[in-house]
Amino acid sequence: MKIFTIILSFLIYFGLSAQRLPLSFPFSTNANFHNQYVEKLTNKYETYHENYKVHNCCLSDFQKEYDNQLEYTVNDIKSGKFYADSTLQNYLNQILDEIISKNPILNKEDYYLLLSRKTIPNAYTTGDGTIVVYMDLLRRFNNEAELAFILGHEIAHNFFNHAMQGIDNRILFFNDKNTKDYINTIKRSVYNKNKMIDEFLLKYAFNRNKHGRMFEMDCDSFSIELLKNTKYNPYAAVNALEILDSVDSKLFNSTLAFKESLNFENYPFKSSWEISEKRTSFFLSSAVKEEFSEEKKQIQDSLKTHPDCQIRIEKAKELLKDFDNNGKDFIVSKEYFKELKFQLEFEAIESDFHYKKVNIGLYKALQLLHKYPEESYLYIALSKGFQTLSESQEKHEFGKYIVKTNHFFPKEFNDFTTFLEKLSLEDLKQIAYHILKENKELAEPHPGFSETFNASKNNTIKPQTIKY
Amino acid sequence: MKKTLLLAMSLLLMGSIFAQTATFENIRKVKLKNSGEIIRENIVVGYYFFYEYDRNSKTDVEYRLEILDENLGSVASKKVTGTKFLYALESTFNGEEIAFKFYESKKKELIFHKYNTKAELVNKSSRILSGKEAKYLVATYFQSGKEIDNNSFYGVGDKGFVSYILTRDGNFHYEIEFIPNGKEKGWKKAPVKNAQKVEMASFLDANNDYILSTVGKRDKLLSSDMNFYVKLMSTKDGKTIFEKPTMSKKYEVTPMNGFIEENGEVLLLGIYTDKDEKTAKAKSLGVVQQRYSSSGELIQEKFISWAKDFSKFLSVNEKGKIEDAGFIFFHKMIKTDDGEYFVVGEEYKKVASGAGIASRALGGGGSIIDMKIDDINIYKFDSDFNLTDVRVFEKSHTKYGLPEGAGVMSGPLLATYLNALGAFDYSFTQKDLDNKSFVVGYINFDREGKRKDRGNVFGAVKYVDGEFKTDKIPLSTDATNIRVYPGKPGFVLLGEYYKKEKKYELRLEKLNF
């Protein structure tokens, strides 16, 4: 603990004073970091195989499902989906430890926390003690206590065995004689077969998710109770739920004036890149949203696995009404949390590039450039992003690296994607090069400058094959 | 390319907002009956997929009309009920309403559905076709046609839609039907007084005031001597403003494209042939531009001859090649907002068929003549219709085995026939939104390069910023078969069917320029 605090203080001192990304950026995602846990998890599943034998039914189905569950988690770990940084892991573990150590009903050995590099504002547990928090959720939190509430919520799911119970219930339901008979009736039907399948699956999903929603409320309550025993402020539960409630509307939380950042002295922004206001879409954006919300609202509401956040917030407030709060927002390190949030803004760009969402990564990089114009990494990221797009376009794989425009995205983001689609191969190469050439002084401090700059320069020299 | 897809497949539209492709996956048995582009003013603005969702009874089928935008985003899913003989034929958008044309083949019923911009059904209308009308309609839609342009259903300004069909009440006559927005009744027009035996109309252009068509007429059913007319009608009531023969003093003019200009004048582009030769059999002598006043007076006419004008732009080698190619089949004439004109053609000639001859020698059947389809030609004209450039874009040739007996047809007549069968490599032309650049696309088997690199490709020639550029997208993938749909400007949509996985995957690909 003492050594960790010294390391943290060192990192924070240099990080804050320079307002620069730390040397540990980007975080490692070396899967070997979690090797010990993979081994432990594999052994744990060996014991699970004994548990379902009590059902005395469909053992091969159980074995298959449990094997799949293990394989899914192990594959995720081995694919480098999770950060593998010892300082980060130690920091997160200390928050988890605070919850577990202050609640004797919990066993430290049962849980393992992973921070996913995916840009999804969520968290989950696989039911085997693995708790996954996505970086995009963490970077939206304001303090450790909010994260602690989410960890408590996932611990509760594990504690009450919700996920594994769900697997067992599903296997037992589909092996039930009545279910099998009904499925056979559908199979034999000549007419309305698909309707019957839909109705059957909907009914099943309604029942399953109705229980799921009850579980969510229980887990919120349990987490608040866990937090009451820690030094953390349990009122953070309300803030955490409010953040969860607003994640959809904050997908891209500011506008972007990309034209000025991509207008170079020797490669000016072309008038043909401007976004035409001529409407080609036949249905109004609002109508599309309505088509897919109003008509299906009833079904969607019934299929929700989580209750509305507002209901959860009210319930949390009720539970905290008479609680005498002496809790803190930070216990481990306020400074490291702040530094981590700062780094995660940039990690999100790396993540989007890694998961082939290059337009989202570029959009975020351009947004951050307005905020941190002296951050050398951003110029490197922009150049790399445009180079990736030019290489993919050369192979006719541009579409694989772009998240398509969508009625549910803000207009600014859709306009930016349309702008990228308008760029010719030569434009993409030239932008990648000129970003670094014309911002050389700002970009040069980055250790990857020379390599990225030379690659972008060579790319512009490479002849394009044109025959006629 | 617009052949009906009757693929028994399992599909589900995955609406994930982060998905790179919209995937139809294996959930339950549904049958995709038709799919196609939704067009507005020659530009792809979306796609529709019409599939059989469920059988309600022996006669009733429940369909789903899945509507995607130009980026493959799901924008609506509409329930349509009908018999098992219902097909979706075409779709068009006029800025205010989107309309679908359906056909019920057993009842021979032509059906229109229209939706407003809120995705609400505005109106349904239908009519029963005569047996012969139905036959012609089936031939039009279910045989071929690769063009991005609609076959016979177009938006008219933002006021409504116009549909062209061929009627056959003893004669062979067109019928033009205007369907206004909303629930109002439209109008139908057909030739009446002194009509010739055959009168066929094709759409050229339309706006809120006028509908411009070309009409081909001949007095005998089997005659190959056709005369062409340009016809301007009032959008409001279908009244003919003027109908003038396009024939000049020396030449017969076959219109290929036409435009209603802002001042109300009509601009016509076409090819011209010797007046004394039968039109359908005649070899074209060049291209022609005609300008008519809003009352139908011919006020300008300009002929550009292959023999005189084009030879100036061709090297000795190219000249020989074009002469050697025999004929050029003209697919498209384009007018850009920069005032330039472009003519797109494809070389073809009849050659002896090695396989056919061998088959005959062994006592088999088959034609001993093949049609050899060769390079794409693009001719560029300035705003005064002076020829300014001629480009020949080389591509691997395609040989198309002629049906037995077809070899005796004259070249131009045979080319028209083969075009209707989809024998040419040319696929479609797509314009950019600015109407200053365009892409000409073709699909063929590329024989260039190493053996491993050979295979089917989608080839494209793009005209942008005053330059021509080319690109090829390989179509040899793991898919069982692949269909290329026109895409939004600069893109094509690849529809890949995987038989084993029973999956139809859609993928937008950007052309590489």
Helix content of chain B: under 10%
> Over all CA atoms, what is the radius of gyration of chain B?
23 Å
The coarse overall form of chain B would be globular
Structural class of chain B: mainly beta
What's the mean pLDDT score of chain A? 87
What is the 3D shape of chain A? globular
Major sheet size, sense and barrel closure of chain A = 3 strands, mixed
| End-to-end separation of chain A | 70 Å
Low-pLDDT segments of chain A: 4-18
Number of H- or I-type helical stretches of chain B: 4
Cα distance spanning the termini of chain B: 24 Å
Biggest interface goes to:
A-B, 45 and 60 residues
Low-confidence stretches of chain B: 1-27
Radius of gyration of chain A: 25 Å
Strand order of the largest sheet of chain A: 1-3-2
Q: Would you kindly provide a written description of the structure presented here, covering whatever features stand out?
A:
The complex is a heterodimer of chains A (468) and B (513). Helix content of chain A is 62%, strand content 3%. With 468 residues, chain A is an all-alpha fold. In chain A, helix 15 runs antiparallel to helix 16. The N terminus of chain B is likely disordered. In chain B, strand 16 and strand 17 form a beta hairpin. By secondary structure, chain B is mostly beta strands. In chain B, strands 11, 12, 13, 14, 15, 16, 17 and 18 form an 8-stranded mixed β-sheet that branches. Chain B is 8% helix and 53% strand. At the A-B interface, helix 9 and helix 12 of A face strand 3, strand 4, strand 5, strand 6 and strand 26 of B.
